[in-house]
Sequence to fold (466 residues):
Amino acid sequence: MTSLMAACSLCCGALFSLHTIPVEQPDAQCFFAQAGEGGRVDLLVLDGHRLAVHPGALAQASLSVELDPESSAVDVADLDGDGRPDLVVVAGDRVLKYSLEPSASREPRVLFSAHSLLACATEQPCPHVLVAARGGRPLIVLPTAENLELRAPSGEMVESHPTGMDAAHRVSFGQPFSALPVQPPRLGVPGALEMRIIQTAAFVPQLPEGLAPPNPAGAALFGGSAAQAAVAARKESAESWPWFRLRPTAQQDDERVFYAYDPGGARETLVRVRRALPPTAGHGRELKLSGVQRYPGLAVPCTAAVPDFNGDGHADLLLWNTAAPVPTVGAVTRALTGGYWSVRLTVHLFEPAAGRYSPVPSAVIPLQVPVAWLLSDPGMPPVRHLVLDEFNGNDRTDLLCAVAPDKLAVWVSVPSGMRPDPHQVVQLPGPVQRVELRGDLDGDGRTSVVFRAPGAFHVLRARKGG
Fold:
């Protein structure tokens, strides 16, 4: 597999190296796993029924495996305790094991046969949790119509937990289903039918601790489209507004920052902070909601992480703003034909002593974005592929986003603040579609990011010492 390295314009040393991994199937998938020895995190790419291992998420594959045509689900785990990961695959009613040793045979070994919901044929196999550690040993996890079965690699049944419709009285998920959170929530288009939920019921199977995540769908840290936030601002209770956690890493999540856009149409964000009062004798934990503070710009509804740009443990506020063109035919025509429009990102740091966000931004980032991004969804920020994470391992949130369909820029937070100019600009060989994965591959606090593009995955690999 070939490697395509793009030229990067740098400032003070590159944070990322770019690695492009071509794929043939438009629905190819990738995931992180420890596929080799030494605890290194690798990128595994499923391209049709071919699985390739890319050590350290680099472009060159170390090995590839042609999977059984009936394969529907794959996972990577050490099944025999020898410290070497194995590839576990469900193919019809068979559970297969492939060796990931570079010199080993690529022919699978049948571990056992058992019918499960994963036996259904699929266009291509998908990553799926097939192995769980129970009592110090790995077990194969197979969902059936009535139970969640945990079997030894030999096929012996070790545990079985009811999850089917007949287990509803003992609480269950009911009939298998899929649920995907939509971020941010969207309003219907004009003329759409409106449906409202009048009753809900939730069933959670009584599974052993560690088998199921506390919140499988993932909690939304930010939420609400621009239109919904503006409506929320008209309500008396600010606690119905969209919100995010004030202290993202704290165990208590009842300290929150509520925000909404100005219902009058001004490009302003209304912010109220709910904090815990100092403890007093004879009283429990009390919360106090601050008054409304106004900030120029619209809050960016980040869904994956709450930013902390100065590393003080408190969430900071990221806003975007742009000047609307003069409402004349000539001005609008010039804006559309110019191709790009000015957008400004501003960072407001939380001031714990004052209990509010600083009225003066600590950083201002000017951007030039395609006009089409500005017009495609008026309720969303015209900033594409935004990633807020730690890229240099200094416990401060950094910022990455697209500045063109085929160009990404990175800004880093340091004790002196965030400079308006990007630390690094990466030119890609083509436009990207979305952020696919992110992860700390080396365990040093530096996040790498994988982007999906037509016919390829682009890996921004965090550089050691970058």
Q: What stands out?
A: Residues 1-11, 168-178, 213-224 have pLDDT under 50 and may be disordered. Residues 170 and 205 are 8 Å apart (CA to CA). The chain has three helices and 33 strands.
